[in-house]
## 1
Amino acid sequence: MIDHVKKGKKSRRLGKEFEVEVRKDLEKQGWIVSKWSNQIKDGKIVPAKGQYNPFFKRIVGEGSGFPDFICFRKSQFPISAEIYHELLQDSNGEMPFYEVIGVESKMKGKLDKIEKEKCAVYFMNKTFSKILIASKCAEGVKYEEFKWIGMVSV
C-alpha cells in the first residue's frame, strides 16, 4: 500500500532541494537571483498569498509565486558603438542594458495548462524577456526556454 503522506513529504523536500540547486546554478552563471513573490490572477500580476493549512494550523505559502525566480544580469548581447552611445544618451547616462528572466523549477520539466497560461500573461505584459524551465538531468540542471506564440505554447 502506498503511503501518500510520506510520498508527498518526500516530493516537497526533493522539490525544495532542487530549487536550491537551480538557484546556485543560476548564480554560478552570473545571474542575480531572487524569489518571485507574485502570481497571476484574473489575467493580472498580483502578490502571491499563502494558503491556510489546517494540518499545521497556520498559513503556509513560502515560495507560492510563479515562476519561482526572477533573475537579472547585465545584458550579454553585442551592439555597435553607435547604438550604444545613442541608447546611453536616451537613458541620461545610465546603463539600460539588463536582461530580466523568469525561471520555474520543475523536476520533470513539464508545465501544466494553468502554468502555461500564466507564462502567456507574463509575455503579454512583457514582464520577462524569457521564461526558462529548469529540470533535473544526469549532468545536474537543464534549462529549456518556454516558447509562446499567440495563445499556443510550443
## 2
Amino acid sequence: MAAVAVVLAAPVVVPAALDCSRARSNAEKMLCSNSRLALADERMAYAFRDAIRRGVDPAALMQTQRRWTIEIRDACNEVEFILKAYENRTADLENP
C-alpha cells in the first residue's frame, strides 16, 4: 500500500510552458499573445498530467503530443481554429 502512495505522490512531468522568447511557429506566436490560447494550453497541460496519473504510458503520450503539436496545432493559422484544436486534444486526454 505504501508503494502505491509513493507512486501517486511522485511528481508528474507536464509539457513545459512555452518560452515565448523562443516562439517560432505562427501558432506559438499566437499562443504567446492571446490569453484565451494560453488558458487553453494550461487546461491541456493539466489534462496531460492527469492522463499520466491515470496510467497512460508517458512515452506514448509524449509521442502523440508531439504529433498533435506538429500536425494539428501548428497547422492552424487562426485563433479560433487553434482553440478548437486545444479543446479536441484536451477532450482526447480526458477521455481515453
## 3
Amino acid sequence: MTRRAAVFLYAFAGWTVFVWVVFIRNISKDHTHTTGFKVVHITLAVISIAFAAGCVAVVGRIRRRDAERAGDRPRATTSQDG
C-alpha cells in the first residue's frame, strides 16, 4: 500500500470518527427526537466508528508488513542519535 493511499484512509477514518462523535453529542442533547430514533442512529454511529477503527488497524498492519518486506523498517532512536 502506498503512503498516499494510507494517508487517505487514515484521513477518511479520522473524519468518520469526528463526524459521528459530533453527531452523537448533538443527538444526545436533542429532546425533539424519540428514544427509538436516538438508539438507531447512535447504533449506526458506533458501527461506523468500529469500521473506521478497523480501517486504521488494517492499514497499519499492511504498512508494517510492507516496511518489513522492503527492509526499511524504522529503527528506534537512541539518545546518541541526537
